[in-house]
Amino acid sequence: MGEDPSSPCHYMKTIYLDNAATTRVKPEILAELPEVIGECFGNPSSVHSEGRKARKIIEDSRRSISELLCCKPQEIYFTSGGSESDTWALYASAHSLKQNKHTLITSQTEHKAVLSCASRLEKEGFNVIYLPVDNNGVVSVESLYNALNEDVFLVSIMSANNETGVMQDIPALSKAAHEIGAMFHTDAVQGIYDIKYNLAESDIDMLSLSAHKLHGLKGCGALYIKQGVILPSLIYGGAQEQGRRAGTENFPGIFSLGYACRIIMRDRDAIIAKKQKLTQLFEEEISSQIKDITINSASVRRAAGISNISFHGVDGEALMLNLDLRGVCASTGSACLSGSVDPSHVLMAMGIEKTTAIGSVRFSFSDDNTQEETLIAVDIIRDTVNKLRNMHHRQTLEEFRHVGIPENIRRS
Fold this sequence. Notes:
The chain is of the alpha/beta class. The chain has two domains: about 25-265, Aspartate Aminotransferase, domain 2, CATH 3.40.640; about 270-400, Alpha-Beta Complex (Aspartate Aminotransferase, domain 1). The chain contains twelve helices and 14 strands. Mean pLDDT is about 90; it is low at about 5-10 and about 405-410.
């Protein structure tokens, strides 16, 4: 039987450019899952043979992740995803029985998982310092030095921004945190391809991962916790994950995360090169075919495959929805609340005007994308932008007629 075109999972003729949101599971991982799920059904905590099969999958994956990050396997703790890993790192650090400090430092452009947790800590009486970024979205090391004091228990700065792809100077930032005696956490969910971490020799104390951003399954992530770091449990119950994270492990998800890390170690250079080539082609064609656009953070180092573009005079949500109707999947950083659109907090922190930020769309590539579909996507984006701008122009004339202003007067 053929695919049902009305199915919500029907991908025929769809050009998927939203890989920073989630990625398709790699075929080689999918091929292994039936056996993993069907044959390894035992509880990993059980001592019998079926439990030991599942336990081996978990420990093999833990070892693969540790090899990618150059750390010890026992420093990897499995979670439900990046948001849990971020929350565990921040919230547990703040409430550690060994802590007598009350200040958290993060940046204005962090993922909502970090910012929401920081807001919660503020309500509980902790002090939170939100470092500013420049107009490219970069946190300066100097601003961190200026904010540091002996009351800081943790600095949390993401490796690569999920909206713009902007990469931070994590070695310098983590070094600065350690100089004052603070711990350092980084959300590496978007930066894992582009940075070759050597956690054994770094100043990073905690690092968050998510499987579904790496072509693994959803619902699984990991938190690296450097040996010696005191971090209380976030979830209580059983003795799983060395007694620090209760709950029966999601071993199919863990399997996929470990497998994805092995693929990165095997193919990293080729993956990065392809994503860079597609992004460069995309941005060159967009720039040559569409007027009045800005490629955000174009002058700084970005994670391969992420392109955030402001289309001046166009509503980003309208553009995204119209692109979806034509088979191109992308996303905006805007949030629709109570019928009004709030612009991306990342772009606003970069000093971009609200109207420009609302007209911004993120396109993100994986090595699954092709040059052919990239060029087709550019054609569709160009036509859709021109259509929306023309519609806006006609609407503006109608507004002028309504107030009695002659048609030949144009709004600048």
